């Protein structure tokens, strides 16, 4: 029995941590920094790799926890790891844990505990006799309609309303009515949903026409993301393809992962140079779009000089790192900076009250409030990401970290219970993807913003499910008819997705 356990998740877990220890040893030998965060990095990696012990497939119940913990390490450990190899000081006492590092470790451990409790609450659950899923034609038609509406709303918003990220650039919002503003914001949220539906349709049918359509949409999103200076939009398409394949098919799309990695490595410096060369000027986005080739040539010509300057754009790991903002909050809160006592979290309670019905609805811009409170920058429009962890500490201190992260873990665990290995339906896929986008990757931003968007999206997904999901009548769709024991089993045409068969 012990041998079986060892060959399972625990063996993989131990192997990963031994390998990581070897990596740290190489980093010490190569970089030799004054304060290597060895103890912290070892503990953080041990925590973030722990989901492999219970992992039950790439699209199983623990896959969401594994994704979250991977992102958690990127946010709070990757910069220290790269600093180790580069010989850069991380600002901590050698061999000891800083208060910030203790907050990060305890917060992650409590979240994992909450997730595991939620996943195992009540056992695996009885199989459903009715699994509704979308038919292929509605999936394609609705997906295309939502994407077109979303991309047009994005174009109008960023090219004619919010022309840049300064206070002056966002002044166009005040010229819109409450109805128009709400409508545009909601319409923008439809774009990734439409793209995901079409990716799902392409992967289910393997249609060459749908593949061409998906690639064309991906190219448009990259161009838009470049011009409006939002890296997430440019990369979001590739991420969604990878997520759909992993969650719906339980496989790793190696070619897409390699392509996404190369795109990130090659495109990130270009986006950073664009921000330094073009975004700070008065050049209109419509002009940039109409002279895209010339703008790209100018950015590529300036990339080397910008990256080698004394004050140069952040690297991708510096950009992703949230440890500095959490350290600022932990060190300052209670030492001259007052606790918020839940003030920045109040928008969650108002999530389903649209501004068109409440014209005086409070607008709490947490990122700018962090900047002003902790005196990070003199520019009022600067946004400092607190991360959900930092914001919980800023509001309630240690009780916020413990109970807040426990609740977040339980929410993620409830979503993780969705059985995509056996029932890879469109609705379940949408719920998991919006959770990854808003609650996992969105963990870096303001907590209320992420959960308000997530709650509204869950409501919208529920409405779409009522409108378009039906019980499949014939084999060959994402979910088949009940079998002899009353369990609905995943089926697909021509043996497609064999890993989903049980």
Secondary structure layout:
Layout: H1 2-31, H2 38-48, H3 63-76, H4 78-86, H5 99-120, E1 133-134, H6 136-161, H7 178-188, H8 190-205, H9 208-227, H10 231-249, H11 254-279, H12 285-290, H13 292-307, H14 316-320, H15 323-332, H16 366-374, H17 387-396, H18 398-416, H19 426-440, H20 447-468, E2 469-470
Antiparallel strand pairs: 1-2
Helix pairs in contact: 1-2, 1-4, 2-3, 2-5, 3-5, 5-15, 5-18, 6-7, 6-8, 8-9, 8-10, 9-10, 10-11, 11-13, 15-17, 17-18, 19-20
Task: Describe this protein's structure.
This protein has 502 residues and is mainly alpha-helical. Among the domains are: 2-127; 132-318, no CATH class. It is built from 20 helices and two strands. Helix 6 (136-161) packs across helix 7 and helix 15 packs parallel to helix 17. The longest helix is centred in the N-terminal third of the chain and has 30 residues, at 2-31. The radius of gyration is 23 Å and the shape is globular. Mean pLDDT is 82; it is low at 474-502.
Quick summary:
Helix content is 63%, strand content 1%. It is mostly helical and 502 residues long.
Keywords:
502 residues, mainly alpha, two-stranded antiparallel ribbon, disordered C terminus
| Radius of gyration of CA atoms, rounded to a whole number | 23 Å
> What separation lies between the terminal Cα atoms?
25 Å
**Total number of beta strands:** 2
Strand order in the sheet with the most strands = 1-2
Number of helices: 20
Which runs of at least 5 residues are low in confidence (pLDDT < 50)?
474-502
* Approximate shape: globular
User: Which percent band covers the strand fraction?
Assistant: under 5%
Given helix and strand content, the structural type is mainly alpha
């Amino acid at each position: 029995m012990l041998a079986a356990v060892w060959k399972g998740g625990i063996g993989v877990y131990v192997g990963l941590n031994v390998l990581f220890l070897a990596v740290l040893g190489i980093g010490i030998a190569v970089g030799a920094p004054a304060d290597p965060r060895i103890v912290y990095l070892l503990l953080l990696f041990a925590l973030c790799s722990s989901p492999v012990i219970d992992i039950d497939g790439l699209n199983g119940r623990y896959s969401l926890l594994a994704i979250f913990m991977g992102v958690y390490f990127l946010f709070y450990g990757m910069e220290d790891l790269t600093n180790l190899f580069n010989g850069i000081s991380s600002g901590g006492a050698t061999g000891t844990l800083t208060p910030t590092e203790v907050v990060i470790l305890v917060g992650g451990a409590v979240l994992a505990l909450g997730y595991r409790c939620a996943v195992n609450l009540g056992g695996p659950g009885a199989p459903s006799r009715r699994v509704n899923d979308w038919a292929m034609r509605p999936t394609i038609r609705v997906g295309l309609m939502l994407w077109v509406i979303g991309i047009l709303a994005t174009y109008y918003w960023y090219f004619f309303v919010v022309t840049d990220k300064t206070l002056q650039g966002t002044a166009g919002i005040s010229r819109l009515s409450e109805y128009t503003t709400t409508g545009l914001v909601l319409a923008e949220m439809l774009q990734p949903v439409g793209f995901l539906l079409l990716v799902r349709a392409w992967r289910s049918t393997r249609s060459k026409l749908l593949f061409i359509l998906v690639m064309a949409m991906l190219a448009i999103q990259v161009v838009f993301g470049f011009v409006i200076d939002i890296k997430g939009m440019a990369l979001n398409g590739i991420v969604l393809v990878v997520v759909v394949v992993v969650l719906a098919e339980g496989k790793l799309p190696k070619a897409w992962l390699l392509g996404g990695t190369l795109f990130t490595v090659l495109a990130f410096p270009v986006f950073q140079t664009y921000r330094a060369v073009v975004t700070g000027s008065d050049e209109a986005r419509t002009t940039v779009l109409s002279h895209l080739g010339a703008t790209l040539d100018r950015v590529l010509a300036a990339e080397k000089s910008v990256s080698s300057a004394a004050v140069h754009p952040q690297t991708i790991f510096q950009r992703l790192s949230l440890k500095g903002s959490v350290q600022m909050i932990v060190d300052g809160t209670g030492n001259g900076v007052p606790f918020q006592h839940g003030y920045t979290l109040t928008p969650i309670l108002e999530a389903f009250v649209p501004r068109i019905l409440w014209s005086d609805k409070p607008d709490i811009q947490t990122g700018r409030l962090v900047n002003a409170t902790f005196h990070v920058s003199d520019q009022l429009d600067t946004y400092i990401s607190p991360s959900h962890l930092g914001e919980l500490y800023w509001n309630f201190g240690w009780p916020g970290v413990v109970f807040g992260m426990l609740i977040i873990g339980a929410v993620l665990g409830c979503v993780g219970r969705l059985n995509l290995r056996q029932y890879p339906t469109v609705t379940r896929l949408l719920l998991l993807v919006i959770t990854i986008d808003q609650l996992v990757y969105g963990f870096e931003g303001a907590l209320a913003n992420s959960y308000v968007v997530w709650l509204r999206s869950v409501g919208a997904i529920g409405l779409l499910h009522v409108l378009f999901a039906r019980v499949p009548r014939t084999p060959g769709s994402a979910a088949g008819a009940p079998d002899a024991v009353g369990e609905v089993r995943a089926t697909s045409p021509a043996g497609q997705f064999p890993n989903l068969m049980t």
